[in-house]
Amino acid sequence: MAIDKDTARRVAHLARIRVEETELETLARELSGILEFMEQLAEVDVEGVEPMTSVTPMALKRRKDEVTDGGIRDKILANAPDARDGFFTVPKVVE
After folding, report:
1. Cβ proximity of 12 and 19 under 8 Å
2. What is the pLDDT of residue 63?
3. In this structure, are residues 11 and 32 in contact, taking their beta carbons and an 8 Å threshold?
4. For the stretch 65-91, what's the b/e string if a residue is b when 16 or more beta carbons lie within 10 angstroms of its beta carbon?
5. What are phi and psi of 23, to 5 degrees?
6. In-domain check, residue 67
7. Domain that holds residue 19
8. Per residue in 52-63, pLDDT tens?
9. CB 7 within 8 A of CB 34
10. Which has more confidence, 26 or 63?
């Protein structure tokens, strides 16, 4: 399928991009090339091919789902302006 200058102008308008009149012929050729490639892809037989999530097979790293306190409470509280009994201390806001 070939794209002409008028169709390229319309596509540019719909995409809300400004294309100079001198660049319309180049845009039309590029869009035609994209459509030709899509037509080639449509000819490929993909019957029985499972969809992929990645081009390289990889397994996700897994860890045990355990609830912990993080084990770094003292390091976290060291950054607090005021901490007491292992908790952040904040001003009272409820009367």
Report:
1. yes
2. 83
3. no
4. eeeeeeeeeeeeeeeeeeeeeeeeeee
5. -95, -5
6. no
7. 5-42
8. 877 787 787 888
9. no
10. 26
Domain count, the chain: 1
Q: Tell me whether residue 54 is in a domain.
A: no
Q: Convert the pLDDT of each residue in 66-83 to its tens digit.
A: 888 788 888 889 888 898
Model confidence, pTM = 0.50
CA distance 85 to 89: 9
State the average pLDDT over residues 21-43.
Answer: 94
**Residue 19 within a domain:** yes
pLDDT at 15 > cutoff 90: yes
Residue 91: both structure tokens together: 């001003």
- What distance in Å separates the CA atoms of residue 86 and residue 76, rounded to the nearest whole number? 10
- How many other C-beta atoms can be found within 10 angstroms of the C-beta atom of residue 35? 13
Residue 82 within a domain: no
